[in-house]
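Following up on my earlier message about nicotinamide-adenine-dinucleotide. Here are the inputs again, as you asked, copied directly from the submission form:
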Amino acid sequence: MGYQVLESVWLAPNVRKLLVAAPHVTRNCGPGQFVIVRATPDGERIPLTIGFADKAAGTISLFIQAIGKSTTDLCNLETGSSLCDVAGPMGKKTTIHNVGHAVIVGGGVGTAVIYPQARALKEQGNYVSAIIGGRSKPYVILEEELKAVCDAVYPCTDDGSYGFKGFVTQRLGQLITESTANPVKEVITAGPVPMMKAVAEVTRPLGIHTVASLNPIMVDGTGMCGGCRVQVGGQMLFACVDGPEFDAHQVDFKELSDRLTAYREHEQRCMAK
Ligand code: NAD
Ligand code: FES
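Thanks, got it. Here's what our run produced:
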């Protein structure tokens, strides 16, 4: 019953990849879209980006970081178990242009969010660079998969245990400076909110078009509950139907951050219980 978990593997100490049978999702999904899943009928609804979608096999890959009770429950699902709900695809597909040189910037599990865009940008004929970061080597994910679809991949670690030592934003600044012969024309980013804000501040003065995939709290995923509201260019929008991708130079990241931490105490109580 439900949606079968065909494979469940740890990609990093706190990130699990689930390969799930969901043919109704693969029929018409694209980069940037997501599903809302529940592990059990009384479980919380969790939005997850569709990482890899295999139309022929009818499967999707989902990447989950264990941060609270429900995400920990999802991470504990083993091969052969099942999800009770997989609703989607939801959200807008990424608009992919041939811009010349596009850079995707992923932080932690956010790297999984932008893998489909990297592949789509390459298919459109772009030169694609990927900058992917983690606290230390075990937290850098999908490097090999990205190498297969990008022209260059730059892993970064905060502690210098692998690749560039420093934040992805530092490497982005360097790459932009180095790329005078093939200037960076577009940046797509996903990861922690402070990282996406910092990416926007690197590209803003240079006028480089920058898109951020936002991860607000979501409930219904249909634009009805208001849970996912975000301020973009002074307008109130709903990430589930108007996004989840927005012009990073227009996003109010402070409000996003405040809303994401609103239930932290409740979450901590649930975990303790
Ligand atoms: P993390 O805190 O370990 O950071 C990952 C990398 O992001 C770091 O290695 C660094 O390179 C960069 N980074 C972090 N803070 C930065 C800052 N202030 N300035 C510049 N660069 C910075 O990431 P994690 O623990 O793997 O957490 C991933 C985060 O991604 C979670 O907060 C999760 O909520 C979020 N997330 C976002 C999306 C999305 O669509 N945007 C989807 C899933 C998860
Ligand atoms: Fe309810 Fe977006 S999740 S409006």
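One observation from looking it over: The CA atoms of residues 81 and 196 lie 34 Å apart. Hope that helps, and feel free to reply on this thread.
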